[in-house]
Amino acid sequence: LVRDALIAEIEKNIPSAELNGTVGKERLANNINISIPDLDAQMAVIALSAEGVAASTRSACSSEDEVPSYIIKALGKSDTMARSAVRITLLPGATMSDARAITRALKTVAERYRNVV
User: Fold this and answer.
1) Which of 50, 60, 61, 74 is labelled catalytic?
2) Strands (DSSP E) found in the chain
């Protein structure tokens, strides 16, 4: 799966990134949610968009809330890590090349915007 390749690429290139949620068959085939310490997720989503990657900080049904995601917190993450959570949903036609491009953009954004806010 491209999702699994993307997770592996992120873990290799951004070692401090933490995958939120389960792995393997239990996870949605096109969903990745990660927290990157000291990265403000809202700023990251805007910066990723400028890099050509669509991402969000939470599900559409709760996108107006200012509080950290209760779902990420229920996984045992701190408020800080919940605020650094970025969700990427892959389109059905996503390729390994797309996974590498997303990883490059995410690494660039993480390096540029950690500890900025």
Assistant:
1) 61
2) 18-19, 31-35, 85-89
**What pLDDT tens digit does each residue of the chain (117 aa) get?**
899 999 999 999 999 999 998 877 888 888 899 999 999 899 999 999 999 999 998 654 444 555 566 567 666 676 677 888 899 999 999 999 999 999 999 999 999 988 754
Indicate if 61 belongs to the active site.
yes
The overall longest dimension of the chain from CA atoms, in Å, is 36
Look at the block and give the residue holding tokens 């996503």.
94
Residue 104 burial by CB count (10 A; 0-12/13-18/19+): exposed, middle or buried? middle
